[in-house]
Amino acid sequence: MRTAIIAALLMPTLSAHAQIPCVYDKEYSGIEYKVAPVVAPEQLPLIEKLPDPFRFQDGTRSTDFKDWEHHRYEISQLFQQYEIGQRPNTPLSEITAEIGEPAAPQGGGFGGFGGAPQDETLGERKSLRVTIKHGDAELVITAMIQYPKEMSEPCPALLGVTNTLPTRLFTSRGCAIVNINVLDVCSHTQKRGQEPINRLYPELIDNGSYSFWGWGVSRVIDALQMLGEKKTKIDTRHLAISGCSWAGKCALYCGAFDERICLVIPQEPGGGGIASWRFSETLGNVERSFNTNDAWFFANIKTDYANEKIARLPVDHHELAALVCPRALLYFGNTDWEWLADASGYVSVNAAKEVWRTFGIQDRVGYSISSGHGHCQLPQSEYPMVEAFIDRFLLEKPDVQTEFAQAPFENVDWKSWIANWK
């Protein structure tokens, strides 16, 4: 079993769940469990509504938290088998890391090196260089650490994947920002077999980018743990991750698969993020399985799972969100951008929240789907939600209220999409 490193932050009425942790001390593999072999798409059974995250592949069902670890393994394997490909298994012996002065000023772009220079809450910066050697090949992942001016060592940190959240919300609370250049691993729209990671793992030519990017973020966490708190000044027991749009999907995949991340904040991730592929088929011009960027997934997502054939897929993205459980999830949507399919995100996040609710920890999930602002521009009205989740899960203030649920979809019947869960 995994070892919990942070005591659960629960309300007094949830004393029965006092042993449910908020984070774990290692990336989870679940190798002690078995998983069914891959089945050809045309042989998969049709699941018209949202798949039940509490049902094992052998047909039995359990809502006991002691079985959630097993459920997580099966669900994570299904995503790797049918949607993104297997994440490489990289031993620590293949990783080296160093931290030093930044080689260049911070900038924007896909690297996501955010943080305004005029922000008086910002302090020193350091560069992190992570080298992975596999066989005769080598890959280097870079990151920039922006420390708050006022901090206690070690400090919590936000892992940014093109972070667009206001960094001040974190740095003013004594949290660092670790902006990870995931494009060191794989480009925004990969050319299969020609990416940096393909030098290490040429056999994974069919993998989608979200498999590779998530693997890269996990190697950065490895590096922070290996270097230790005295060198990095980072408390790896209190890590959050964020990203927006394509990087919002990326942040969700990273947080879903690495249990060392205690708070996951996908911002406007759209289809392939929290939005349900199945529900999105009922909407209009939104990101769906046949019109997404197939470089991010297995290429056959556009053909074998197009339109009504999406019912073949043995998982859906409420389960990707549920993989974060029992850790914390805060989701932001934006109805001004039809492509984001936020009605689908609403259905999916509520379905996922049923997993937390079943374990009595539904206050670890929050969401706000709003309008009146640009894409990836968090409105000030949502700042208090981010601040509350930082206070509760990064700073361990247990009395902070975090069960936010705001969306303009009162007439969307999400419960009918989980009526088969029994």
Q: Short description, anyone?
A:
This protein has 422 residues and is an alpha/beta fold. Helix content is 24%, strand content 17%.
Overall body shape = globular
User: What is the total tally of β strands?
Assistant: 10
Q: State the helix count.
A: 10
Oligomer: single chain
Task: For the record, give the distance between the C-alpha atoms at the N and C termini, rounded to a whole number.
Answer: 27 Å
**Succession of helices and strands:** HEEEEHEHHHEHEHHEHEHE
What's the rounded overall pLDDT mean?
92
Biggest sheet descriptor:
10 strands, mixed
Strand content: 15-25%
| Structural category | alpha/beta
Order the strands across the largest sheet as they lie in space. Answer: 1-2-3-5-4-6-7-8-9-10
Can you tell me the residue ranges where pLDDT is under 50 for at least 5 consecutive residues? 1-16, 105-117
Q: Which bin fits the share of residues in helices?
A: 10-25%
Radius of gyration: 20 Å
Provide a descriptive summary of the structure in words.
- The chain is of the alpha/beta class.
- It has 10 helices and 10 strands.
- A 10-stranded mixed beta sheet has the order 1-2-3-5-4-6-7-8-9-10, sandwiched between helices.
- Helix 6 links the parallel strand 6 and strand 7.
- The longest helix is centred in the middle third of the chain and has 19 residues.
- The radius of gyration is 20 Å and the shape is globular.
- The relative contact order is 0.14.
